[in-house]
Amino acid sequence: MLSPLPLSLLFALSTSAFVIPKPDAQANGAHLPLKRRSPKARSFEEMGSWARAQREHLSMKYGGKSRKRSTGTNLMVNQNADSSYYGSIAIGTPPVSFDVILDTGSADLWVADSNCRTGCDNVATFDTSSSSSFDNKSTSFDITYGSGQASGGLGSDVVQMAGFSVSDQVFAVCDQVSDGLLTSPVSGLLGLAFQSIASSKATPFWEALASGGAWDESVMAFQLTRFSNDSQVQSLEYGGSVSMGFTNDTLYTGDIEYTDVVGSQSYWLVEMTGLTAQGNSVSLPSGSDSYAAIDTGTTLIGGPSEYVAKIYENIDGASAGSGDYEGYYIFPCNTDVTSSLAFGGKDWSISSADFIAGQISRSECLGAFFDLDTGGSAPAWIVGDSFLKNVYSVFRYDPASVGFAQLSDTALGYNGDDDTPVPSATIGSVAAQVSATSLGGQSDTNGASVSSPAGLLAALAVGVAALLGSC
Ligand SMILES: *[C@@H]1O[C@H](CO)[C@@H](O)[C@H](O)[C@H]1NC(C)=O
Ligand SMILES: *[C@@H]1O[C@H](CO)[C@@H](O)[C@H](O)[C@H]1NC(C)=O
Ligand SMILES: *[C@@H]1O[C@H](CO)[C@@H](O)[C@H](O)[C@H]1NC(C)=O
After folding, report:
1. Residues 110, 116, 120, 125: is their CA dihedral positive or negative?
2. For residue 223, which atom of ligand 3 is closest to its CA?
3. pLDDT tens for each residue of 451-461
4. CA–CA separation, 117 vs 120, rounded Å?
5. What is the DSSP letter of 262?
6. Which ligand is nearest to the CA of 126?
7. Is 230 close to ligand 2, i.e. is its CB under 6 Å away?
8. For residues 269 and 347, what is the distance between their CA atoms, to the nearest angstrom?
9. Closest-CA residue to 194 (of 164, 167, 163, 218)
10. CA-based nearest residue to 422, from 238, 242, 239
11. Which of 98, 242, 311, 409 has the most beta carbons within 10 angstroms of its beta carbon?
12. What count of other Cβ atoms lies within 10 Å of the Cβ of residue 70?
């Protein structure tokens, strides 16, 4: 069954993906309750946790870097038949929750401003004056994506997500948003890529947490659901989950196969080493022509026209689209297409349901792979949700790498399951928090951040944002 996905929506989404949330967390003062006992009575095991608690307690007290580590999970919503996936964050004092697209393809956090002049109809907006902790940075913010742009100003405030909090997260409050960029109830976007591509130049929320040691393990992991082939699909469905600080082993089986992020940390960029369609492999060049940004904020999969064309050569009856379908390929809906991508050695197959981006007539379908000629410094491939629905994906901070694993039966069971409730925005309790300004990721103070020339990175960010992003 194919969902009647409106084309305007389809195109809007395929061009608005690259979005990612930022991390903000604060350390909480809690420490392990210790039983009073003579040191001699402690077992070796107890000695370990005692020592750790002592260290954490002292470092907390004297403002050291070691903080309580933790883990957390946010449930997501699948919007408009797999077009986008969003989750909730909370901003301010008192905290107010907002739904934001979770985007590993960009690095800025922004939300609609309560003084929004255009583009914020029917979405919750942030009233900066209602938060006692909001700090106006008096700096303008501007971001351009293929499907539009958003602009406003920068500020900082407490931002919470998945049980983590960053006390002074810098983000944008946008008062001008292009029409159609925000689809109710989504109020903004949380960029989850690296700081070097942030238009705001601020440390992203996730990176503040990862570099600040707030996570047990320096990973974020996604499970995305599939509803596009469910004839009963509603505009909002259960979207899966994102975990921070751990991987949820009930959602995957086997090993997580990691591939190093290539180049300086910008996008979650890895080398694509294999591509097949209908069992035939399309040979790929090595090096940057096969670098792929792994992007939860992009609906489909974009790549160089030469290689995209070769995919469709393997599919009977496929032809290049024109007019509105320029850059896309059309193929008979009754053809089951098997395809796969490989990163580092292992092949990951894409279900035939995900190979279909949408149905355009009684018998014709659009393929999920489209021409993306980013040129120059932008990633050659943008691998979005059409692929990511087929795997458990892990974004590891250190060493910077992207991992994939096979989804478990439990994870697969959520696909097309209309009985799983759509999560609503929540403001959970905070298990761990960091201060963004005290972190290593903040650049100049320690050599830990990016070493690439700012000009090149800016061009890269603008190049891809201009094709795919939206504010
Ligand atoms: C920040 O302050 C400036 C004036 O300095 C004002 O124009 C702007 O609206 C304020 N921004 C926010 C997000 O409150
Ligand atoms: C949707 O696609 C998946 C994977 O190809 C398949 O297992 C499932 O049966 C499909 N569901 C429907 C309703 O067609
Ligand atoms: C792991 O995933 C399962 C299945 O979705 C869920 O029930 C469980 O709560 C998750 N665990 C954590 C710690 O989030």
Report:
1. positive
2. 5
3. 222 222 222 22
4. 8
5. P
6. 1
7. yes
8. 17
9. 218
10. 238
11. 242
12. 23
| pLDDT score for 120 | 95
Q: Nearest-CA neighbor of 432 among 42, 67, 19? A: 67
Instruction: Please tell me if the CB atom of residue 235 comes closer than 6 angstroms to any atom of ligand 3.
Output: no
Closest CA to 141 of 104, 177, 168, 94: 177
Residue 97 — very low, low, confident or very high, per pLDDT cuts 50/70/90?
very high
Q: For the domain 80-221+421-436, what is the CATH code?
A: 2.40.70.10
CB atoms within 10 A of CB 85: 25
CA of 125 to the centre of ligand 1 (A): 15
User: Rounded CA gap, 103 and 86, in Å?
Assistant: 9
Three-class SS state of 136: strand
End-to-end alpha carbon distance in the chain: 32
Spatial distance between the Cα atoms of 228 and 356, rounded to a whole number of angstroms: 9
Q: Which residues are tagged catalytic? A: 103, 295
Chain position carrying tokens 């290593």: 440
Contact of 148 with 180, CB cutoff 8 Å: yes
Give, using CA atoms, the residue closest to atom 1 of ligand 2: 229
Q: pLDDT for 155-174, tens place per residue?
A: 999 999 999 999 999 999 99
The token pair at 269 is 């960029």
* Contact by Cβ (8 Å): 4, 359: yes
Homologous superfamily assigned to 252-407:
Acid Proteases (2.40.70.10)
DSSP annotation of 118: B
Ligand 1, CB within 6 Å, residue ranges: 128, 136, 138, 153, 155, 173
Three-state DSSP state, 402 = strand
Distance between CA atoms of residues 263 and 265, nearest Å? 6
Residues 395/268, Cβ–Cβ less than 8 Å: yes
Instruction: Give 229 Cα–ligand 2 centroid separation in angstroms.
Output: 6
Task: Pinpoint the alpha helices (H) of 269-408.
Answer: 305-313, 352-355, 385-388
Residues of the chain with CATH 2.40.70.10: 80-221+421-436, 252-407
Q: Would the pLDDT of 265 be above 60?
A: yes
| Length of the chain in terms of residues written | 471
Q: Give the residue, out of 215, 219, 222, 248, with the most ligand 3 atoms within 8 A of its beta carbon, to mutate for a pocket test.
A: 248
**If you measure from the C-alpha of residue 165 to the centroid of ligand 1, how many angstroms do you get, rounded to a whole number?**
24
